[in-house]
């Protein structure tokens, strides 16, 4: 199932009545939508072109053409793979290896098709030029922010990753214009993370969110919402494919930063590597 279709199904009951009618029409025949005009969709749903545009923007698309393009791309690939596989009792280890590989590859592919290059470029530029970067995330998301923190430290960026909710708010309060706060939450509904990013925005910092795709609160708070696939469900999956999807976006952001300011960041990355290697040799004989 395409992530966009999945998100529409998840959000259907909470949509305003007119937007719900649009979603219902799309869900009835999603493969037909890329061939429709905005006027035809408005007519079929008993709404207006302006309402269709508002509906698309509520799901973080630029408008109906952007929605059609991304939906078509997803639908063209959704039949190429099997569904995400859950944990099964007594599964042979060979099957587990195959299932985890399939889940991770699908998560990365689904996420890549959801990425908005314009938003990514904006996020990369903000991170490159930020005077200070705050990273917020709790539980599994804190692992993702710690990964980004370790990357950014290696290239000399002033940044800190916070998993404690009080420290998130405390640090966010001291941010100002020229700083960047980035919050990670797969659900996009983690109250502590939402509060921290909102506080950072009020303080004048630029804000970036990284969540699963959908109309969630954290994305709504941020200046630049970035999304991963939202197809991994069920408590037994243990946030595995979702974590890989989040790290996939982090790697793209970091590599984008390195490429955008190559002459500044590469020497710092190489120097930090050599310093760590020298330290290991001196202290532990290279072990």
Automatic annotation (TrEMBL):
Query: PROSITE patterns per the record?
Result: HTH_RPIR, SIS
* Keywords noted in UniProt: DNA-binding, Transcription, Transcription regulation
What range does the record give for the signal peptide?
Answer: none
What residues does the HTH rpiR-type domain cover?
A: 2-78
The segment(s) forming the SIS domain are 123-263
For this protein, the record's InterPro entries field holds: Homeodomain-like_sf (IPR009057), HTH_RpiR (IPR000281), RpiR-like (IPR047640), RpiR-like_SIS (IPR035472), SIS_dom (IPR001347), SIS_dom_sf (IPR046348), WH-like_DNA-bd_sf (IPR036388)
Any idea what this protein is called?
Answer: MurR/RpiR family transcriptional regulator
Species whose genome carries this gene: Paenibacillus illinoisensis
């Amino acid at each position: 199932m395409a992530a966009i279709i999945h998100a529409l199904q998840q959000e259907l009951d909470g949509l305003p009545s007119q937007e719900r009618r649009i979603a219902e029409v799309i869900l009835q025949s999603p493969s037909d939508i890329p061939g429709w005009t905005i006027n035809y969709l408005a007519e079929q749903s008993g709404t207006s072109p302006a309402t269709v545009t508002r509906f698309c923007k509520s799901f973080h698309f630029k408008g109906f053409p952007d929605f059609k393009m991304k939906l078509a791309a997803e639908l063209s690939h959704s039949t190429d793979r099997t569904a995400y596989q859950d944990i099964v009792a007594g599964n042979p280890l060979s099957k587990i290896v195959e299932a985890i590989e399939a889940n991770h590859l699908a998560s990365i592919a689904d996420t890549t098709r959801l990425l908005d290059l314009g938003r990514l470029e904006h996020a990369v530029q903000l991170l490159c030029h930020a005077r200070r970067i705050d990273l917020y995330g709790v539980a599994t998301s804190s692992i993702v922010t710690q990964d980004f923190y370790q990357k950014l430290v290696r290239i000399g960026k002033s940044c800190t990753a916070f998993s404690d909710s009080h420290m998130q708010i405390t640090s966010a309060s001291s941010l100002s214009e020229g700083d960047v706060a980035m919050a990670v939450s797969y659900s996009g509904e983690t109250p502590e993370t939402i509060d921290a990013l909102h506080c950072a925005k009020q303080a004048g910092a630029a804000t970036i969110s990284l969540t699963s795709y959908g109309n969630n609160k954290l994305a709504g708070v941020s200046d630049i919402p970035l999304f991963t696939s939202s197809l991994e469900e069920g408590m037994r999956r243990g946030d595995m494919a979702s974590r890989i999807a989040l790290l996939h976006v982090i790697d793209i952001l970091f590599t984008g930063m390195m490429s955008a300011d190559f002459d500044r960041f590469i020497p710092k990355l190489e120097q930090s590597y050599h310093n760590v290697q020298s330290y290991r040799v001196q202290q532990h004989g290279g072990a």
